[in-house]
Amino acid sequence: MPDVEVAVRGVLPDVPGPSAFPRARVVRLESDDGTSVATGLVVGPRLVLTTRRVLGRTLPVARVRPPAGPVTPEWLAAQSLPARVRARTLPAGDDATGGDGAGTVRSLAVVWTHPQADAALLLCTDAEPLSDATDLRTEWAEPDEATECAAVGFAAGAARPLDDAEGRGAPVEIGIVVRPGARSRARAWSVELATAPPGGPPGGSWAGCTGGALVAEDVLVGLLSNDEAATRPQGPGLQVVPARRFADQADLVAWVTADAGPGAWARAAATPGQLRRRREQDARADVRWPVRVGPVPAAGDGHAVRAEVAAALGGPAGEALHVATTTLLCGPPGYGTTAAAAAHAHAAWTAGALDLLVWVEGGSRSDVLAGLAAADRVVHPTTVGGADAEAAQAFLAWLASTRRRWLVVLDAVPDPSLVHELWPRGATGQVVVTSERNDVLPRTGGRVVAVDRLSSSQAEAYVEARLPGTPPADVARLADDLGRLPLALAVAVADLRDTGGGAGEYAERLAERRQELALPDDAGADVAATVLAVTTLAVDDADARHPQGLAQLVLILVSVLGPTFPLAVLATAAVGEGVESLVRPRSWRRWITPGHGITPAELREALAHLCRVGLASLADDSVDGATLARVHPLVQEVVRAQLDAATLDTALRTAAEALAEAWPRDGGPGATAEPVFRTCASTVAALDVRGALWDPEGHPVLWEVGASLSRAGLPHEAVVHWERLVEDATRTLGAEHLDTLTARNNLALAHREDGRLDRAVPLLVGTLEDAERVLGAAHPATLTSRNNLAMAYRDAGLVERALEMLQRNLSASRRRLGADHPDTLTSRSNLALAYRDAGLLDEALPLLVRGLDDAERVLGPDHPATLAACRDLGLTHWLDRRADRALPLLERALADRERVLGPDHPDTLTSRNDLAPAYRDVRRPDRTLPLLEDTLATAERALGPDHPVTLTSRGNLALAYRDARRPDLALPLLERMLADAERTHGYQHADTLACRGVLALAYQDAGRLDRAIPLLESTHADRQRALGPDHPDALTSANYLALAYRDAERYGDAVRLLERTLADRQRVLGTDHPDTLATRGDLALVHHDAGRLDHAIALLEGTLEDRQRVLGPGHPDTLTSRSNLAVAYREAERTEEAVVLLERTFVDRQRMLGPDHADTVASRVVLVDAYREVGRWDDALAVLERALRDDERLLGPADPQTSGSRVTLVDAYREAGRDEAADALEAGEPVDVARRRGARPRRRSA
């Protein structure tokens, strides 16, 4: 069972720190006869959670179901519940004994017990509830690592008042550390009280603490219960009933929901250990709280105050948030939903109620992902790059566990599917959504606030406040003429304030404009017509300012962009030239376009005029230096409706050119605004119904959107984009046009990135066939298609087909471009690396050797491709276990990169990471650890702690520490790696699971199986759930778990799991797959350790035979099998057979790996022991003498390893009776001299 450590922290008035529930949620339970005391947790205004055992076996359980609605006094009166328990709340006060009173007493009845677990619910039957707290949300979880918990209990005995003179009625905090172990799924965890004071807590036994909630990071972990089997002088012992045993029982959830409301009882989004790491991240010094993320609409007095909406969101002054809630502001365009959300955001920010404000544009799923990802990169500023989807999930996980106060606004969400599984949630924050639909809410529910037109009084108050001194009749007329429409009122008022006109005069102009535009005079009933009228009046007034007539053109241009757009587009040459070609709507006021070239400054000034008259606004915050502006979508819509087809097409082409020109590149200034560019480009593409962007070919901005989605790690969204482009290209250009083939190729790549090889491969096959037929076999586009198909085949495990494609590509490239063309060199490199990835090193090495020679000759020694070719060749030699060849190449690659790129470049640091394992394999820890330590320090300084190269460096150093048997140094790094992966990728990502597995193996190596096995079990379960039970990673997890069971001497569990894994691998991978053979070998080792040598030898012999046939006699795995079989032969007293196998293994490892490789050294040790066992001293000494020569040559005579080899040889000399040789070696003589002196052994006396 898990280890549980307990300590008393003292009398507790209020549980402090990370593992605390509010004081008001702890109650003391007393039997009605006053003979017993226990503890309970308030989980609803009338509900208390405790254990069933503390109530006694005779206490009746009411046969009543929870009501459909809230638990009211009237409902209670109709039930006649038997109240047999009293609950006493803790009184207010700060002193240790509970303050100045004895707390409130209420009567309770038992309404639910779990059928198996020791848990119960008690319901307050009095007219007044136990608690009037508004937030009684309870989250539960199961610990997956050593977890510090706290519980609060009371001294057992008579029901003394809380202010008992001896303090025996006071609450006591118990600190408990739960360490999940091999039987973490047990029904209860035993609590060892050896660390507690004898006699129990002050004033009684531990029995008074039973029923208390065990809490970690504000999450319920379990309940304390009596351990009746324990006999202790101080009374019953304790055990913990895990929350997972009862927390998801339907009746319990129904009772808490009825009493405390929906969502009041839920499983936590993370484990306590993950929550602890989140809390530690909250305290990071590299974030300057409070922070804002996203294009929050500008603050100001341009929007009407709606008291009812403000109250629903948290108060008119933003002084409070309705935390742990989701509120939907629902209303048609122009009704002010976005304005109301913005007003709430600014009020909460100004009131200091927020640590984090996030504004997310909700127009598309990619927008939502980008907005959440941007927030993650702000709260974790050292995170570099990464996919938006992963960053978004990391941010959502952070929200669920942070203690920071936050507000997330999802603006203008058109469809609930766009935010599926992306809903923020957490106990310390609020979500506000705006939409035209009333069903855009998470499945857990939320509040819908309908946003309508303003009332007459609201509209008139709004006008009067912003146009003081306006006659009431004019105020009423203006409000009525605009239909009390918030958007129209905001534009009209801003226009009047800018021009200084009067409301009465404006009403007259409005009526005239409606007549000019043939709009209905319907008091604003037609929303679009009303917005059009005020828009044309406002743009006329903006155009009257210098530069005259330009505001119209700017408004036309930005009407085809997204509602939020980067001001950088107005500074492009494309806009400066394109706006001159725009034709103003016939019904609008005519202006003469300036004859001189329009400058960016004039365009910015025209936009400023639009802002003054209420048609545009600047976002409060810039995004990475790219200032953003906003135009209401309804204003954009009515403007576009006035344009003729030619003008709209001109605007679309101009906008596309401007976006392509201003698009942020390669992480430069404004790079984090790329999602805004992407949204604008997608809007332009969606408005292009006549193919303006496809004449004469696809506009580059269309391809940029797809590439941007791939860069952001949004493959599903990229698939949707490329599907649309394929359709548009086929319709406008034809199926055989180069752009159509390219779009099909990119669609296939998006399918591949999305993990849909079943769709990618057929599409790539068809695209390649068409490209070969239309363009020719050696056209660059055909070569690209063939290469992409090869990569898809490789991903699908069709290695032979992949290699065939790459071979054809290399031949075609050589034929068309020549042997020395850079593309030909790339094709050769791709083929070589594919051979290497397939394990065909003999085929890969000649290609890589030639590739390096050609790159040096054609591109020069300092070209990046040449440096990469040198590295690739070195790594391939290392994979071939030829460290003697790998080391010079890897050292050269590092030196060249340091010289060409600098010591801090990511590629240089990668080369240092490459070199360290090669040093390790040749037993050079003096170089391995210093190199990796320096690499990590440099990466953290130059790239930041969360850069991918830094993460790799940290992992490599941790593994090197593990290999050096330094778990004290390895484990903290691996634990940090897991925390980084959880934050960056989420808890179920493949990289996170891999990190968890590596940490578990490190715990296993360190002998800490109590930590290793639970991690391996959870990793295996998560991989089965996420990937499927037949996925190779899931099978690998099962294999590792079985080996951990072996180390824990749980041989039965290990054998059963390995036999099942072996059967699964045979079925999924085949009998001869290397992984299948590895599992069979591991099963043999478990039988060996369990003492079943006959089973072990049979399996080992079969595994060796199959590995020799499948992998070859010199493969490292074959050599391992031979060595393992030899060990088993020795233990079965088949020593001569063992020696033959060991000799062959040692010779093969010397030849294949070199004399200094770690595996060769291990073979040497085992062989020497076998020689000793059979008395072959001459052979044993010859091996040891050679080992000492090799160490002296490689490491030097003063190296500790050399000294160890010398001591081993001295001991062997003496054991063989060659004392003279031993004396000479101890005296410092060379090994050859010592050997000659001991050539004839001295006869020992009997």
Global structural class: alpha+beta
Anisotropy-based shape: flat
The oligomerization state is single chain
What's the gyration radius in Å?
Answer: 38 Å
Please provide the count of β strands: 24
Termini, distance in Å? 56 Å
Q: What's the pLDDT, averaged over the residues?
A: 83
State the name of the first-level CATH class of the domain at 3-268.
Mainly Beta
Query: What's the helix count?
Result: 45
Strand count, sense and barrel status of the largest sheet are: 6 strands, antiparallel, barrel
The residue ranges in which pLDDT falls below 50 over 5 or more consecutive positions are 1-20, 94-101, 157-168, 181-187, 192-204, 229-236, 1240-1246
Task: Give the helix proportion (percent range).
Answer: 40-55%
Q: What's the CATH topology name of the domain at 3-268? A: Thrombin, subunit H
**Strand neighbour order, sheet with most strands:** 2-3-4-7-6-5
Structural commentary:
- The chain has 1246 residues and is an alpha+beta fold.
- Among the domains are: 266 residues, Thrombin, subunit H (Beta Barrel), CATH 2.40.10.120; 177 residues, P-loop containing nucleotide triphosphate hydrolases (Rossmann fold, 3-Layer(aba) Sandwich), CATH 3.40.50.300; 88 residues.
- 52% of the residues lie in helices and 10% in strands.
- The protein contains 45 helices and 24 strands.
- Helix 20 packs antiparallel against helix 21 and helix 32 packs antiparallel against helix 33.
- The radius of gyration is 38 Å and the shape is flat.
- The two termini are 56 Å apart.
- The N terminus and C terminus are likely disordered.
